[in-house]
Design a protein that fits this description.
By secondary structure, the protein is α/β, with parallel strands linked by helices. It contains 15 helices and 21 strands.
C-alpha cells in the first residue's frame, strides 16, 4: 500500500489533552453517550425530580463515594462552555475496550464519534470500522482499533487521547473530548439501572462468542423487544459471527448504537432519576472502569443538554464497505483491512463534515410496549454435578455456564464418577427448549431421556447437568 497524501498529525493536531485543556485525563464515571453526567446534575439542578427527603438521602450517599466530596463547590458553579459549542457542534470520541482479564485488553471493539448540535438538540453517532487501516506515528500502518493499545504502549493512560488525535486528522474535524469504557464498566452501568430495553431486528446465533478464559460459547437472540442485563447487552453489542446477516462488523456497529441509545433512554428516565440509590450505585460502579478528559463543569453542561435530547433526535451513520462507501476491502500483511478507495480520504472526511445531513434515525424498531419496563429475561437455573472424579470440574463448568448466561444454583458430586459423557436432564419438560439447546452446545452434552429417581424431587432448578469424562478431553 502506498502512503496516502493526508497529514494525520499536522502541527495543530499534535497536542496532548493536557496541552489542550490544561488538565490530565480524569478517570471516574461516565457512560458511553455521556448522559451519565445527568446523575451529577440531578442533585445540582434544582433537585427537580427528587423530594426533599430523597434529595437529602442522595446527598448522604454521594458523600460516601470517593471524589464526590471534592465536587461540592461545582454544584453551584456556572457551567463550563464546551469546545465546539460556538460552532454548534461538540464532538466526543467514544471508545469501548476489553480491559483487564480480556484478550487484547486495549484493543477497541467500539470506535464511535458522538456529535452534539446544541442549537437543535440533535445527536449523531458515527461508527468507525475497526478494520480501517491508518498510519500511526512510530508504528506504521495499523488497524485503527489498535491505536489505543499503541498509545498506551507509548504513554500509559494516554491511549484514548492518542486515538483521538489520530481520528481528528483522519476525519478532518476537531474532536476535543474522549470517553473510554471497558467491558466491566459497560456491564456495571447497565446493571445498576436495572437493564435496558432493546429491539432485536432478527433472530441470530453466534456459536463462537469469546469467553473470559479464551474459549468460545454460543449466544443467541430472538427478534423483538428484549430486556437485557449488562452481560446480555455486552454480548449483543460484541457478537461478530452471528447468523442471519449479523456476522459483520457493520451489523455489530448498528447493534452498538442501539445499546447506547437504549442506555441513554434508561439513564434519563423518571424512574432512574427518582431513585437516589440507583444513581449512587451507578456512579460507584463506574469509577474504576471509565476514563475521560471532560472536566466536571463540562459534564454539568452536557447534563443539561442531554435532558433536551429525545430518542428520535439521535441519528446514526455506519461507515461500511458498500458500493456507495468511500471504503473498500483489501488485504494488508495477510490480514483483512478496509482502505479508502483510490487512496482518497476525501469521502470519509465529507461524511464526518456532513454527519447531521447523512445520519438517519433508527426507524427499524416499533413502539415499545406501554409498560414502563419490559419483563426481565429470566436466566435458566442450573444444578451441576461432577461425574468425572476430577476435583474442581463442577466449578470449571459453572464458570463456563455463567459466562453463557445461566444461573448456577448448586454444584456438587454426582451419584458416581463413572459417567463417560456429559448429560443434561430437563426438569422444565420442554418449556425452555432454547436454553436446553444452548446448554447442549456449550457442553457438548446429550439430553438424558430417563431421569434418575434421585432427581425426581429436585426443586427450584430448570436443568441438572452431570459432567462426564468427555469434558476432561475438551469434547
Amino acid at each position: 500500500m502506498k502512503l496516502v497524501k493526508v497529514n494525520l498529525l499536522s502541527a495543530d493536531k499534535h497536542v496532548t489533552t493536557e496541552d489542550r485543556t490544561g488538565h490530565a485525563p480524569v478517570k471516574f464515571f461516565l457512560s458511553p453517550l455521556l448522559t451519565f453526567a445527568i446523575f451529577l446534575a440531578s442533585f445540582a439542578i434544582g433537585r427537580m425530580t427528587l423530594s426533599q427527603e430523597s434529595a437529602l438521602a442522595f446527598a448522604e450517599q454521594l458523600d460516601n463515594i470517593p471524589i464526590i466530596g471534592q465536587m461540592r463547590h461545582l454544584m453551584s458553579s456556572p457551567d463550563r462552555k464546551l469546545a465546539g459549542e460556538q460552532d454548534d457542534r461538540i464532538n466526543i470520541l467514544l471508545l469501548g475496550m476489553g480491559g483487564e482479564g480480556h484478550e487484547g485488553p486495549f484493543l477497541t471493539d467500539t470506535i464511535m464519534v458522538a456529535s452534539i448540535k446544541p442549537g437543535t438538540n440533535k445527536v449523531a453517532l458515527l461508527s468507525i470500522p475497526r478494520d480501517l487501516i491508518v498510519p500511526l506515528p512510530k508504528f506504521g500502518w495499523r488497524k485503527v482499533n489498535s491505536a489505543n493499545a499503541f498509545g498506551e504502549l507509548q504513554n500509559s493512560g494516554r491511549g484514548a487521547d492518542f486515538t483521538r488525535t489520530i481520528l481528528e486528522g483522519l476525519l478532518g474535524i476537531d474532536i476535543p473530548y474522549y470517553v473510554r469504557v471497558d467491558f466491566e464498566g459497560f456491564k456495571s452501568v447497565i446493571d445498576s439501572v436495572g437493564g435496558v430495553d432493546i429491539y432485536v431486528e432478527r433472530n441470530f446465533t453466534d456459536y463462537t462468542y469469546p469467553t473470559r478464559n479464551y474459549g468460545i460459547q454460543m449466544v443467541s437472540f430472538k427478534k423483538g423487544w428484549q430486556h437485557m442485563s449488562g452481560e446480555e447487552s455486552l454480548k449483543f453489542a460484541r457478537s461478530r459471527h452471528g447468523s442471519n446477516g449479523e456476522g459483520s462488523d457493520f451489523a455489530r456497529a448498528q447493534r452498538q448504537q442501539k445499546v447506547i441509545s437504549a442506555l441513554k433512554d434508561k439513564l434519563l428516565s423518571a424512574k432512574t432519576f427518582k431513585n437516589p440509590s440507583t444513581i449512587a450505585n451507578t456512579m460507584a460502579a463506574l469509577q474504576s472502569n471509565i476514563s475521560t478528559n471532560l472536566q466536571l463543569g463540562e459534564i454539568l453542561r452536557l447534563a443539561r443538554m442531554a435532558q433536551k435530547v429525545e430518542h428520535l433526535d439521535i441519528t446514526h451513520k455506519i461507515i461500511d464497505n458498500g458500493p456507495d462507501s468511500p471504503l473498500t476491502d483489501s488485504n494488508f500483511g495477510g490480514a483483512y483491512v478496509l482502505v479508502p478507495k483510490n487512496d482518497d480520504w476525501t469521502g470519509l472526511r465529507q461524511i464526518a463534515a456532513n454527519l447531521f445531513d447523512l445520519a438517519k434515525p433508527d426507524d427499524s424498531a416499533p413502539t415499545p410496549p406501554p409498560s414502563a419496563d419490559l419483563a426481565p429475561l429470566q436466566k435458566a437455573r442450573v444444578e451441576i454435578q461432577n461425574g468425572t472424579g476430577k476435583s474442581g470440574q463442577a466449578r470449571v463448568t459453572a464458570t463456563t455456564l455463567q459466562n453463557a448466561g445461566f444461573q448456577i444454583v448448586k454444584i456438587g458430586n454426582a451419584d458416581s464418577f463413572g459417567y463417560p459423557e456429559s448429560v443434561i436432564y430437563d426438569l422444565t419438560k420442554g418449556k425452555k427448549s432454547a436454553e436446553l439447546d444452548k446448554l447442549k452446545a456449550a457442553l457438548n452434552a446429550k439430553e438424558g431421556k430417563r431421569m434418575p429417581t434421585a432427581l425426581a424431587d429436585t426443586a427450584g432448578v430448570d436443568f441438572v447437568v452431570i459432567i462426564g469424562k468427555n469434558a476432561l478431553n475438551g469434547g
